[in-house]
Structures are given as structure tokens and as C-alpha cells.
Specification:
Serine Threonine Protein Phosphatase 5, Tetratricopeptide repeat, 9 helices, globular
Length: 168
């Protein structure tokens, strides 16, 4: 598999239309999910840059796709690992803050991923609780986010209940 600049160059030459964003996004998200679920498999973890490159290209073509999903994914990827392991929590926080502002805080999965990755990995308990409580207090944000928001609410409830030594 091509990596780094070679893959980025290929993606820019091959995928040029806004309509390419969904395929790139879902390919990257699927790959990223497989990696997230297989953290004990170093051979898969090293493929994270390829998944990130796909979603980065999707963001370049249409950052609004799936309620700013590319910004949320990139925020989670950058926040999931400490700097010593290649992560960039500061950049991750910026992606999350951009997604929150641009989505007008309507996509509650952004708050959930922000809490689950950035707040946990930087040990920011106050931010963690604030974001999860915001999810639980939110009303209906409309059809385009209803299902993911209900999932975010269910997950926020679970994560708030398990806070303590297992999270912080």
C-alpha cells in the first residue's frame, strides 16, 4: 500500500469532485474503525495514516459531509494517541472545535467523540463531563442527526456512569 505523500498525491489526482467525498469518507472511517477495534495488532495500527489520508481528502472535497463527519473523524484520530505515539491532541481539539462551531453543535456525536478521545486522553475530567452532559441535555436537532444523536445520548449515559477509575 502506498503511503504518505505518494498516497496523498494519488488521492488528489484521482478524486477531484465533491461527489467523491462520501466514498473516501466511509472507506477511511471503516478502515479507522477496524484499526480502533484491533489496537493489539500493530500490523493494522500502522495503517492509520492511510485511513486518515482518505478522510483528509474527503474533508478537502466536502468537509460538511455527514454533518462535518470528516472533522470529527480527524479530531478523534489526532486525539486518540499521545504525542509520543504520533498523535496530536492539540490539532485534534482544533478539529473538534471547528466541527462544533460549523455544525452549530447539532451533531452530538462530535461532543461524544471529543469527550471519549480528547478529554479522556488528556485527562480533562471537567471537559469530559461538560460534553457528555451537553449531549444528555440536548433536545431534538432534526431529522438529519436524529439517529446518531440518539446513539450519542445512549453512549453518553453509559460513559458518565462509568467515569472514575476506569476512565480517569
Amino acid at each position: 500500500m502506498a503511503g504518505g505523500a505518494e498516497l496523498e498525491s494519488f488521492l488528489k489526482k484521482t478524486f477531484k469532485k465533491k461527489s467523491d467525498a462520501p466514498a473516501l469518507f466511509w472507506a477511511g472511517v471503516g478502515w479507522g474503525a477496524a484499526i480502533d477495534m484491533s489496537r493489539d495488532q500493530p500490523d493494522l495500527i500502522v495503517e492509520l495514516p492511510q485511513a486518515k489520508a482518505l478522510v483528509t481528502r474527503a474533508k478537502e472535497l466536502d468537509e460538511t459531509y455527514y454533518n462535518y463527519g470528516p472533522l470529527m473523524f480527524l479530531g478523534a484520530v489526532e486525539s486518540a494517541l499521545p504525542e509520543a505515539m504520533g498523535g496530536n491532541p492539540k490539532l485534534g481539539r482544533q478539529y473538534f472545535e471547528d466541527a462544533l462551531a460549523k455544525s452549530e453543535r447539532k451533531n452530538l456525536m462530535v461532543q461524544f467523540q471529543y469527550a471519549r478521545t480528547y478529554a479522556v486522553n488528556t485527562q480533562n475530567k471537567e471537559l469530559f463531563e461538560k460534553l457528555l452532559q451537553e449531549i444528555l441535555d440536548a433536545g431534538d436537532m432534526g431529522d438529519s442527526v436524529r439517529l446518531p444523536n440518539e446513539i450519542a445520548k445512549a453512549r453518553a449515559k453509559i460513559w458518565l456512569e462509568k467515569r472514575g477509575p476506569t476512565v480517569f
